[in-house]
Each structure stands twice: as structure tokens, then as C-alpha cells.
Amino acid sequence: MNALLIAHNTFREAVRDRVLAGLVVAGFALLALTRIASPLAMGEDLRLTVDLGLSGITWLGMIVVLMVGSSLVAKEIDRRTIFNLLSRPLPRSVYLFGKWAGLAGALSLVALVLAAALGAVVLLMGHAEYLPSIAQAAYLACLELAVVTSLAVLFSALSTPVLSALYTLGLFLAGQWCEDLRRFATQAPEGLRTLLETVANLLPNLPLFDIRTIAAGAQTTSPEHLALATVYAALYSGCVLLLGSAAFESRDFK
Amino acid sequence: MAVRTVGLTKEYRHPWTMKVTPGLTDVSFEVRRGEIFGYLGPNGAGKTTTLKILTGLLKPTRGRAWMLGTPVEEVSSRRRLGFLPEQPYFYDYLNGVEYLEFVARLSGLGGREAGEAARRWLGRVGLGDRARLVLRKYSKGMLQRLGLAAAMVHEPELLILDEPMSGLDPFGRRDVRDLILEQNERGATVMLSSHILPDVEALCDRVAIVLRGRLERTATVGELVEGGTPRIELRVAGTPVVELPATLQGVLERRTSGGDTVFTLHDPARQQEAIAWLVAQRLEIRSVTPVRGTLEDLFMAAAEGAAIHASVERRSA
Amino acid sequence: MSTLVWELAPVRRRMLLAWAGAIVLGAAAFQLAAYAARTLPARPPFEELAYYPSGQALRPATLGHAETAADLAWLRAVQYYGEHRRSDLRFLQLEHVFDVLTSLAPGFESPYVFGAFALAQEGRDFEAAERLLRKGIERNPASGRLAFELGFLHYVRPGGRDLHAAAEWFERSTHLPGHPPTAARFAAFARQHSGNLLVALALWNQVRETTDNRFLRDIAEREVLRIQEAIATGRREHAVRRLTTPQVLLLPQ
After folding, report:
1. Which of A 47-76 lie inside 8 A of C, CB atoms?
2. Does residue A20 sit at the C interface (CB-CB below 8 Å)?
3. How far apart are CA B36 and CA B184, in angstroms?
4. Which of A31-35, C19-23, C57-61 has the lowest mean pLDDT?
5. pTM recorded for the entire structure
6. Whether B145 contacts B109, CB under 8 Å
7. In this structure, what are the phi and psi dihedrals at residue B32, rounded to the nearest 5 degrees?
8. What number is the ipTM of this complex?
């Protein structure tokens, strides 16, 4: 299928670009750092390792999304490689979807590699009970990155790389505050409350993908939560990519 | 009909000033199946705009176009199309085989078929010995060849080539000419735009000339050339200082070429008169050559005509 | 309706379909987000705004990585304690530091414990210590460990130990998960409410043996030595008095 071809090509580009390899190295360095800092943690070094390891996966992934994702389509338009593709029987929506799938796939690979490294470290520290929570947290991180990548692809199709990165970063930050918005809404007067709740539901609900708090205590979350998060990620990404397709259809490539 | 356009118009509207800049105005032409069609015009005339509309990269403001019977807005119209864009760029990290296989599969070839076609075509354009080289390291000429291969790898029925000879040395241009002829013999229709007029003259069955967004003329190369003005060139040794006779003023021109002087006679009927005058001046006549009108002349004439046309429009506006 | 869509120019048609799809998926995502907010278990609770405003304000700034920020704050708190322990023995910021830390990560139990003991023993501020542990218990009502530690705190309070409160908390902890196996025994001892130095000694020994926290171990060491010395020199009264009357230790350790 054409979408798979584009996805595979995007994946290949991302992997061969040194950025991804650099990020994996950075992730390993972070893990090493937590081990070195462990005496300072006064017995809490396991917690420190798990927290930093899991946070690192999301933060490093976000860096890739901002650096690579936000120029993903814009770069192809700029360098005109896109002419070679869109002059073939390839619908523009399929193209966008393929770009998204390729990058999200590459990021998931990085996340899994880093999660495996974290799991290995934790195992060596003799705490195998953390492995299920690490696995769950890593899976949810993959979903979170997929959602943010879809936003990056949307903006990349409409705008320049710099602006696209800014918009994506902005929505990422705003998405982190969904819960705070809802909490604030419960204390707000009636009209404002509905508005705030609506905004909170429109923003990407990123806290849904965050179980770092309970993973720090080696606890896991319910299958219902995982299923909900998966469906939400699919729906939200799908919506964003379709919006991108609608806008992309009418775009002229001078 | 391989390609058909009716009233194709493209206008650019500035987002803030609302000023409208015309790109193409009311372009209508047809490309018959099996022919090689040339699309000529100076930079900015609208050649690339037309080709981009045909291949779905631009949306026309007005008018319609069809490729192989299907409207160009349908994605399926590009199924049997091979397109070479102007100055093609590719992915840095792929090598030649990977890229050709990728685009072949996008155009509908199956997995193994695509791989074989990719390797075959890479060899065909002379890049077979560097199959593993990444595209980042390709020279301009190599990129051009790869672009051609990418346009032809899936054996399309219609080839649209924007400046296929650009960036190539004379050997390369000859190879491309052969490639195009070969594809045409296979049954493909070719529409190409070019600046290199001798190549167009040699290749094309019919030619359209586009100027300032308008289609000025469409005709066979033969028709265009026959309608052109024949001349006679009289080559004379050295660079003598002579004054042109009053009788031949206006039909005789001189210029230097190499160490010689060339007198161009625009009225072949007065050939004997010119020769007699040269002899009387005691000039050594090296050669007398009739020259057929070339496409270049036609191009210039059409350009001049368009300029006159435009100035007339301006005055009456 | 569908024939109408198909009669549109292909580009318009594709755009319309894309918009329609986006709206459908978007609406579904919207509903799902609202559903998730209603049904999924609430994440660890926040402070009431009136109580600890600084922690509350800080949490959104950590952008979902409050646990990691808490870990880094823990490192900082430990460092702060260590620096001042070595130098001027003035722990003016100690309460605030631990307050912020525990606001960021309410489920992180060690700061409550270490903070409370550092505040009580070194910072000479029993009220602050108790506040901190009570905050921990409020946020983690099912924590046997924290309940036990509060009992311990009451038992060894310098200058005025509250055996009644200690016994209560020891007992409560026995009903909650995570309490030390000795909790019941200590509850019994506290009920005996004598100036039982051996109990205090046993409590401090337990800390010294089990904690990974070097500083907490040092605090425990000092207390153990002090009690042992008191028992050895027969200056039991001095030790008991120290435990029962408000007194500020004049000798730096």
C-alpha cells in the first residue's frame, strides 16, 4: 500500500539521519548519569533512575519531533522532492499519513530501545518488579509522541519549519495543562467553566499518557486506561491528520 | 488524445494587496497519442506552470485539462504518467536503486518487479556502476539522469519532461535524445519543454510556443520552419572595410565569424546581384550557403510579435 | 446526498471528505477525553490552595514531570541539609524545601520521614516536623510506614514526648500496609508509658540498621550513643529529663 511505502521511506530517512542515533546515545548517557548520581540520592536512587529514565524518553522524543517532525513536509516542499511523489498516483492524504506513520514508528523504536535499557539497569539493580510499569509507561510515551507527531506533521504541511516547531511546542505545553485547566474550571463561574472544559477537551490530553507518578512506585495501571489511551491517540491523531489533508489538498506547489 | 487542455488559466492573487498576477491565460492545446510534443517558451512564460497543472501540483484558476482521458484533478490520471520536474531533487540518504524502487512501487509496480526495473533503468541511464552511491553525492548531471530514470522506470504511456537536457553535456544530451526516441517507439507519448532549440527541432513532431502565459502558435516543426524566412549566407575571407551598396541596403547584413566576414542576404532572389557586388569589390568568396529558417528565428519572431501585441494592448488600454 | 458529493470537483470532494472525517474523529476524541477525565482514577491529589500555595504553583510548571522534578528537589534538599549540617547548623529553609518537594510528589514517602526527623532533631522545630508528617499521612492515608514514623516522632520528641499519641500512631500503623514488623511491640511499650530508654534505644537502633539514608543514620547514631552513654554512666535522670523537659542542647555535636 502506498501509505506503507511512504512510511517505510520516512522511517528509513529518520533512522539514517544521525539525529535519531544521537538521541539514543543521549538517552544512554542520561541513564549512566543517574547511576553516577545515585549516592547523592540517599537510598532513593532506584526512584531517581526510573523517573529520569521515563522522563528522558518523552523529552528526547519531543526533541526529535520538534527538530525532524516540524520540517518533515516543509523540507520536502522546499527541496522539491515532493514533486516526484505527488506527480504519481498518490493521494495527498495518504502521503501525510505515511509521513506521520514513518516518523511515529521511528520514535517508537527509540522509545522502546531506551525503555529496554532502563529495564536492564533496573533489573541489574535487582528490582524486576518495576519492569511491567516501565513497559506500560514506555508504551504510553509512544502514544503521546505519536499524537504530538501528528500535530507536527499538520503544521509542517501548512507552514515553515520554524513556525511549525513553535506551534507544536505550544500545543505540547498546553496539552500538559489539561488537568490543571479542568481543575481550575471546577472553581470557575458557570459560563467560563464550560469554555474551559471545552478547551481542555480540545487540547491534546497529554496527561492521559502519563503514568510516571505511579510507575515510580512500581505500580501499573488498568487495562482500561491503556485501551482508552490507545483509542484516544488514534482518534486524535486521525483527526489532526485529516485536517492536514483538507488543508493540503488545496495547496499549490509553485 | 494523450493530453488535452481547454482554456487553462492560472492567476495568482497577492494575499494582502489583492493584486492579480496572470500566470497562464486561456491556454488550449492537444497532444496526440504517440507523438513527441514540444512546449517552448522563455523563462517565466508559463511552461512549468502548465506542466505542474497537468501533473496535479497546481490548481488552475479556470479551465480544464485531461491526461489520457481522465481529468487531471483525479489522482488516477497520474497512474500511467511519468514526470520529470525541472531541477529534480531527491532524498539524501537513499542510493539510486533504493530510490528508483521506491518510486516504481509508488507508481504501481509490484515488489520484485520494481526492484528489477530499478536496477535495469539505473544501468540504462549510465549509473549502474554506482548503484550503492547515496544521492547526496550525486552531481547535477547524475541527478538529471536519475530523474529521467524515475520518470520512465514504470514504462508510462505518457511522459512529461520539464527541461530533460538541462545539466547534461553533449554526450548526455544525445543519450537523452535516444532514450526519448526509444520510449516513443515503444508507444509512449512525450511532451517536453526545453530551451535547447536544436534538440527540440530534432525530436519533436509538433511544437507549441508559449509567451507571457499565452499560447502563441502550435504547428508541426516542418510547418513552422517552412514558414520561416530562408536566407543565403555568403562567407568572405578577412575583414574588409567596405560600404554596403545602396541597392542592397536592408537585405544585406554583415557580421564577423572566425577570421571571416559573413554577409547574410535576406532576399534569396537577389543572390546573383549580391555575388556580383562582392566580386566587384575584389573580395574572396569562400562559400555561398542557403540557410533554412530555424526554430530560433520563429521563436524570436513570435516574441517580437507578442511584444508588439502587448504594446498595442497597453496603448489602447 | 452521496451523489451530490460525488458530483463535486475531485479536489472539493476530497477536501469535504477530509473535513467530515476530521470532525467525526475530533468529536469522538473530544467525548473520550471528557469520559477519561470522569472515570479514570484521579492522580495523586493536590494541595488545597490555601495551605501550600508554593507547591501548587510549581506543579504545572513541571509539565507532567513532577516526579522527576521531585527527585531533583530531593537531591537538592539532601544537599542543603548536608551543607548546613557541616557549617552553621541553621536550617532556615528546611521546612520550605521539604514542603515544595512533597507537594510535587505527594506519594514520595521518604521526604516526609527524613524531613520530619531533620526538622525535629536538627532544626529544633517539632511543630514543623509534625506538620510535615501529618501532611504525608493526609496524602497517603493507607501508609503504615508514615503512621509509624509519626508515632516514633512523638515518642522521641526532645523535651516533651507524648507517649499517648505515640502509642496511638503505632497502633494505627499496625492496621495499615507497609508498617514495620515491630510496630505492635512498640505500641505496647508506649502504652507502658515509663521513661523507658530501652524502647527509645530500640527505635533508634532500628532506624540505624535499616535506612539507606546516611544522614538519617547519623542522627540515629547520635541518639543511640547518647542513650547508651546515659545508661552506662547511670545518668539516667539526665537522659530522662532530656526527654521530658523542654531543653535546648547547648553542646554542638
Report:
1. 47-48, 51-52, 54-55, 58-59
2. no
3. 7
4. C57-61
5. 0.76
6. no
7. -80, 155
8. 0.85
